[in-house]
Amino acid sequence: MYKILDRVDYSDDVYMQVIEAPAVAAACKPGQFIILRIDEEGERIPLTIADFDRAAGTITIVVQAIGKTTRQLQKLGKGDFLANFIGPLGVPSVIEKVGTVVCAGGGIGVAPIYPIARALKEAGNKVISIVAARNQNLLLWEDRMREVSDELIVTTDDGSRGRHCLVTEPLKELCEAGDIALVYAIGPGVMMKFCSRTTLEYGVKTLVSLNSIMVDGTGMCGACRCSVGGETKFVCVDGPEFDGHQVDFDQLLARQRQYLPQEKESLDAYLVSTAVNKVA
Ligand SMILES: Cc1cc2nc3c(=O)[nH]c(=O)nc-3n(C[C@H](O)[C@H](O)[C@H](O)COP(=O)(O)OP(=O)(O)OC[C@H]3O[C@@H](n4cnc5c(N)ncnc54)[C@H](O)[C@@H]3O)c2cc1C
Ligand code: FES
User: Fold this and answer.
1) CATH class of segment(s) 100-209
2) Of 22, 24, 186, 241, whose CB neighbour count within 10 A is largest?
3) CA of residue 145 to ligand 2 center, whole Å
4) Rounded CA gap, 30 and 267, in Å?
């Protein structure tokens, strides 16, 4: 059993949990993820390791509640336990000194990009970060990103904080100015697609972290397969990071939507059962 040591709510839908998992904390690297199960009946869900503390033996996850399991997890807090917490999974980010790196995080994607930006900075790179969200209430970890960046740009779609534009606007300006060795873009599939399209024009290497649906997380079931450079890849064992210029984002987005009716049915049943329990 894995104990939840802390929970912070950032909004009605986004929350952070700190989990006691010493073996995962000892071995994990930026870019990796875990798969957890709340209880023995539970679905396995993949979540990125947003931070880790090797001395304390803890892992931090930041979660957006969008379906049954992420809503159920949202109800758990300090002192509660998770049945399974497996990791670290996936190929770690390659952290090298390459020069100037842009780290663009959109919405919940800011949390996964944070340990990568920190490691890139520690490796001696100049890190320019773009933290983007639909509005200021959805902006995440601006302070943490500022700490690990040489420069921080904030954008919101509605202009409620920072620049009133999409993440691709400052990204394009930075590429145009030149001297960008590498771009990391992590966030919703659509955001990663358009960031990759923006940088392709300038030939700037761009890495994205794909969030396909997963089941086993070991390369056996094929649920997470995606197409990269015309080849089939498994996000759980070949990724989650891939060259954004080679990813077939349209296929990724279509595959993410393939179980929508079942996911809706599962969430509705869960919400009804929790409402009934409240009345009883
Ligand atoms: C490697 C990896 C790392 C991830 N890291 C994080 C993270 O750090 N924080 C976080 O909040 N989420 C992360 N995700 C996504 C997270 O796993 C899903 O949101 C979660 O499994 C949804 O479970 P659910 O039962 O609550 O919702 P479901 O009922 O399974 O799905 C509800 C809705 O979300 C969509 N959805 C389901 N799975 C995904 C997915 N993988 N990506 C995008 N949309 C999805 C469905 O199409 C549906 O619209 C990650 C996914 C992967 C593959
Ligand atoms: S989740 Fe089953 S192969 Fe990747």
Assistant:
1) alpha beta
2) 186
3) 31
4) 31
Q: List pLDDT tens digits, range 171-224.
A: 999 999 989 999 999 999 999 999 999 999 999 999 999 999 999 999 999 999
The residue whose C-alpha atom lies closest to atom 39 belonging to ligand 1 is 213
Instruction: Please state, in angstroms and rounded to a whole number, the distance separating the CA atoms of residues 137 and 75.
Output: 21
Beta-bridge mates of residue 185: 104, 208
- pLDDT tens figures, 81-139: 999 999 999 999 999 999 999 999 999 999 999 999 999 999 999 999 999 999 998 89
Answer yes or no: is the C-beta of 263 below 6 A from any ligand 1 atom: yes
Residue nearest to atom 2 of ligand 2 (CA): 221
Cα 54 to middle of ligand 2, angstroms: 28
List the structure tokens of 197: 């399209």
Determine the CATH number of domain 2-89.
2.40.30.10
Q: How much is the pTM? A: 0.92
Would you list the domain boundaries of the chain? 2-89, 100-209
